[in-house]
Amino acid sequence: MSASYQGVLWNRQKRIYDFVLWSFIAVYIALFAFLNYRFDPRITPETLFIRATGTLALLMLHVILSIGPLARIDKRFLILLYNRRHLGVSMFLVAGTHGVFNLAQFHSMGNVNPFVSLFSSNMHYTSFINFPFQVLGFFALLILFMMAATSHDFWLNTLTPRLWKSLHMLVYVAYALVIMHVVLGVLQLEHEPTLFGVLLFGLTWVSGLHLYAGWLEGKRDREASHTEGWVAVGTSDDIEDSRAKIVFVGGERIAVFRYNGKLSAVSNVCKHQNGPLGEGKIVDGCITCPWHGYQYRPEDGCAPPPFKEKVSTFKLKMVNGIIYVSPKPNAEGQFEEPLVIG
Amino acid sequence: MIMRERTRQSKPFYIGWMPKAEPEYRSFVRLVIFALVVVIIFVSVFLVTNQHGFSSGVFERSNFTELEGMLIQKPFPAIKTFYGKDIYGNPLVKTIPLVNKGKFGADSLVAQMMAAHRTAGDTLWVNIKGRLIYNRGVALMELTAQDAAMHMMKALPDGQKFAAPMVTDLGTATLQGQIVDPKCYLGVMKPGEGKPHSDCAIRCIAGGIPPMLRIINKDGEENLLILRGEQGETINRQVLKFVGQPVTVSGKIEQVDDWLVMKINPLTSIETE
């Protein structure tokens, strides 16, 4: 959480996260090399490194894509989500190493520029099975590069969260390109059905998790869905202290927080990365986003100074012990008198 | 930013910028780390043990070998080495094709050497130094130092007679196989065949390395045939679109000393499967 451009705001948990992450990277590459030399020492060092980095990047991409839906299914996975950007940048570095080694191995020291060679060696662009698979990998890498290069909050603020989020949703395009890169590339030579099976398992895992998390969220929304007028939220006893209840009104989620004997309602969408504020908690008197810890005051939806983010607030009323929320949002950052629990 | 306030809650809540995660999160993340360790062990063992396997080809990256023999341009740039005679008194020949550094053939290097030192009708007896690439009794030499790799020892007067290859016509045939570049296939790269390697093979053949048809018979025995045009000309550019794919090739096969050469019409003789 930063008010202006700064380098990475390191903290203890980010350091632990990165240490564990790079330990995994080192262990995987070492293990892959050891096993290759143990089972078939005829492999060349270049092929070893290309395969180690390629498979590692693909594995990391599966982990990255799994964290979002897993965190929606079980909140304890939020600990992996907090520093997911470092995981993404690290994955790009591994994938980039794979790409650079491939370009050097297969396209350099020839009669044309390596990039010209990449696009012009295999010209079977109209064939499915003979399609130039390395081009698919190149475009996947280009997307991952754009994501890594804009991963800092400076770019989030500069590009606006909406555009930034759209750009980063291209990870799914990159994933599709990578899957086709593998299917039309190395799997054309390595025919083992079990290799296809593992790739299919990964694809099913990622798709299944997203579908299940989406279904769960849809179910919650349907249960809390309302369309017009003041909407009943429930009684104050339905909301745990310092926590919120989410209601789905007219296509928007509203988080109703209970704290210090009061109630306040804000938009459920964090301005940082659209995190679900209603799954957060009141910490230090502020609503704290479960994704990256961005904070907002419950009564006016403003981040505490020097931060500038603002979310919409909503009017609340209580009739016969039942809390009602107005579906019409106030302006972002507008103060709304908290409802005192009688 | 803001003083931390202890709140009493039944459910733990994770905040990344706090110094420590709550105990429930810490124990959970240890479990996740353990699961990921199991996953990477499984994935690495599974991938390594399910690979196709690698060829026994050797590229002597750090070892330079000197060869002495006759420099020839046709049917492909090579050095013919002689290592004795057979029971009929014929010289035993080992022909080692020459390739350039990187993804280039040695045609121009050999042509330059010939032009610089040969008088009409003579053949060059040379000493060359390079890195050997070999697999299953077939060898190539990379002229790593390029033109500095060759030293003429002497011109052999009337050497064409001596250098004339023993050519045996083996008739015409239709063969199924794959067009590869011999430099990578014999050991520089592994795998040096198939789709993953096809871009590199295309680049090598486009750079002048002779295209080679690799065939495997039903008993798993491998044969390698250098592809040439019907008049023995190079056809590198014409075969590029077929490289790395399963192909059927028809043409006339000749045994030239210890190599097989297949002469084809590149426009009509190659079909993809």
What does this structure look like?
- The complex is a heterodimer of chains A (342) and B (273).
- With 342 residues, chain A is α+β, with helices and mostly antiparallel strands.
- In chain A, strands 1, 3, 4, 5, 9 and 12 form a 6-stranded mixed β-sheet that branches.
- The longest helix of chain A is centred in the middle third of the chain and has 31 residues.
- Chain A starts with 11 loop residues before the first helix and ends with a strand.
- Chain B has 2 domains: 106 residues, OB fold (Dihydrolipoamide Acetyltransferase, E2P); 106 residues, Beta Barrel (OB fold (Dihydrolipoamide Acetyltransferase, E2P)).
- In chain B, the strands form 2 sheets. In chain B, strands 2-3-4-6-5 form a 5-stranded mixed beta barrel. A 5-stranded mixed beta barrel of chain B has the order 8-9-10-12-11.
- In chain B, strand 11 and strand 12 form a beta hairpin.
- The N terminus of chain B is likely disordered.
- At the A-B interface, helix 1, helix 2, helix 3, helix 4 and helix 10 of A face helix 1 and helix 5 of B.
